[in-house]
Amino acid sequence: MNTLYITGAGVSAQSGIPTFRGEDGFWTIGSRNYTPKQMATRAMYEHNPGEFLSWYYKRFVTYRDHGPNEVHAWLADKTLITQNIDGLDAKAGNMNYISVHGRIDKVTLFHNQGDPVSLEPAPWHEVDENNLKASLLDIFKIGQFGPQLNESLKSYVLLFDEYYTDLYNISRAQEMMMAADKIVFIGTSFSVNITQIALEIARYNQIEVEVVDPEPAHIVYDKVTYYAMPASQYIKR
Fold first, then answer.
1. C-alpha 40: how far from chain center
2. d(Cα 113, Cα 104) in Å, to the nearest integer?
3. For residue 102, which phi and psi values (nearest 5 degrees)?
4. From CA 130, how far away is CA 152, in angstroms rounded?
5. Domain positions in the chain
């Protein structure tokens, strides 16, 4: 059976990375002046890049040295799409997975969405945390007029007001969904577009679905099996 696994933040919780919508999650903690959904936008990056980069660094990049857990290890040889940007699946040895929302260890040139652009290693080792905002603006080549196209850097992350492009391997992800005999969703709240795309394909092709989560979201589909448990328990069944 060709099984596709689609993972969310719940998979990395055991590695000490907060889930998005838990009590200490990324979307429940904003900056001093903005909510997380206001922060995680291209508009914020363009108009207030210092605030955006400081928030991104504190909320995501500070977890860059965390290691994979047993679930990542179990998924290392699986066909995998993850919503997570932590890069832990790569650390666990999965070299063919798709990180459909980006990765914290990569950056690109700031570009118009859809334009071809290469990935570069993120320069986090250059950051001066004692002068965080100014340091990030300097490293990302952002001056007083804000980010400049094809000159400034941008975090490799898909933001709320951006759309999936092949920079995020969306075409290959859809091909993987179409080819699947079963799709297993692990640790996701089904609140982002990639899970809805996968569900639409599953319904259209009558693909078997499994949902793994301690509090699984209910799916309107008659080929769903629910496993109300953490991923670490599911992999030991």
1. 12
2. 18
3. 105, -170
4. 22
5. 1-17+68-101+163-237, 19-65+106-157
- The gap from C-alpha 196 to its chain's centroid, in whole angstroms, comes to 15
Task: Indicate the SS3 state at residue 182.
Answer: strand
What integer is the mean pLDDT of 151-171? 97
Position of tokens 């179409």?
Answer: 178
Alpha-carbon Rg of the chain, whole angstroms? 18
Residue 30 pLDDT grade (very low, low, confident, very high; cuts 50, 70, 90): very low
Just give the CATH number of 1-17+68-101+163-237: 3.40.50.1220
Task: Tell me if 11 sits within 8 A of 91, measured CB to CB.
Answer: no
- Is residue 66 flagged as an active site residue? no
The token duo for 159 is 């933001």
Phi-psi region of 154 (alpha: psi -120 to 50; beta: other; left: phi over 0): beta
The two structure tokens encoding residue 22 = 């838990």
Could you tell me whether strands 102-109 and 120-121 are parallel, antiparallel, or unpaired per DSSP bridges? antiparallel
User: Structure pTM?
Assistant: 0.92
Catalytic residue among 47, 66, 72, 101: 101
Q: Which residue has the tokens 């804000």?
A: 146
